[in-house]
Design a protein that fits this description.
alpha+beta, Butyryl-CoA Dehydrogenase, subunit A, domain 2, Butyryl-CoA Dehydrogenase, subunit A, domain 3, 48% helix, 14% strand
Amino acid sequence: MGSISGKDYIDRLNRLDINLWCDGVKIKGKISEHPAFKGIIQTTASLYDLQNDPSLKDKMTFNLTNKNESIGLSYMQPKTKTDLKRRRTMIEYWARHTCGMLGRSPDYMNTTIMSFAASAAILTGKDHCFPENIQSLYERAMEKDLSFTHTFITPQVNRSHINLGFSNEPISARVIKKNKKGIIIKGARLLATQGGLTDEVLVYTAPRPFFNPDEAFAFSIPSDTDGLKFICRESFVGGESTFNYPLSSRFEEMDSIIVFDHVLVPWEKVFFYDNVEMATDFKEQSSYYPFAYHQVIIRQIVKIEFIFGLAQLLVETINIDEYQHIQEKLSEIIIGIETMKALLEKSENNAELDEWGIMRPSLVPLQVASNVFPRIYPRFSEIIQLIAASGIVSLPTENDFDSLKSDLDMYLQGENRNALDRVKLFRLAWDLTMSSFGTRQTQYERFFFGDPIRLSSYLYKSYPKEKNVKTVSTYLKLNK
């Protein structure tokens, strides 16, 4: 079948019998028609439709050797730098279509599945490891153009380094039994973005200082697997009006807790279990981080370019571009954009083939970018607030314009825009930075790849220091 259409995606999702809860109520009927999920599902469907746009098909899809069907290009394992840049072009198309707002656009998880399969040989010969199951998932995902969410995070009952846990019942999801059919999981995982809105859920144990072997596993199962429950947070969709809620009505990605109640994971879907070494090392040794960072940095660049465009329009609309403090603020955003772009370019220019013939982007520039972005994004959100000032506070709604148009046209016009367009612009600024959707965006980007302090620590520990140290030691003629 290969790449699907938006209708295929929606129809398939509606056919699933997912145990999905929102605001204390179990979702019944078509998921795609529920007000909390309608916008994001329609937006995701539009991404799949881009794959089949005749003018973009060559940029959005590729063909496997000896197969005629078109495959979504985010599944392509790059063998050359040209392949790597083709992936970037495809990711940019989807990111621009969503203004960079979707942290879990399908290409993120497609990239994860691709990178896992590209490095599956790491598991060969290891205890309780099944590399063939990762390859099988990769092939099935390409063939059916599956959608995925994932969950890595354990419940935050106790975040101290030494947390042995004394609950009689599992809190963090763990293996409680094994039988002829597979492993049985009980417990919970946190923060599955778009959890319950995809074909499958990838479950992986994130490394941490103290590991229970029963929690050292990885697998992917359908979202409607028996015993699997998704508990959604409060919806941040303000309403269906794209005038009142220009972002949340389209791009609000639900986050959910996943509860495993004696979930049977068939052996053919298990990547590994009861293997602390692989739970700790597989992601680090595989091509996951280079490719995941690569996809995310591309999206984040698109997002801050969108922010810059918004900031510039605000400045022009209220005619404040001659002030140096405004120019300085816009320059901050420009510096952020160009820094991120340069790091992305370096990662591609310095890409190298790994031992399995996969062209990996250079990791260090991407790690640097992933440390830069969590710091600059909250600042850029603040800049939008500072530029918009009080104009972002008292904003009329779409209904106000229906009833009070003459008053609003007079008093809310801009230097070069009518009142309706001025309010559209300021409502966009509000939805990006001050609504519940906008503040979630800031927190989400701040912790996208985890605690920024840990990211900095990992960059320091993994950065090659020897050459610089040797230079200084040689200069001073220091003894070894």
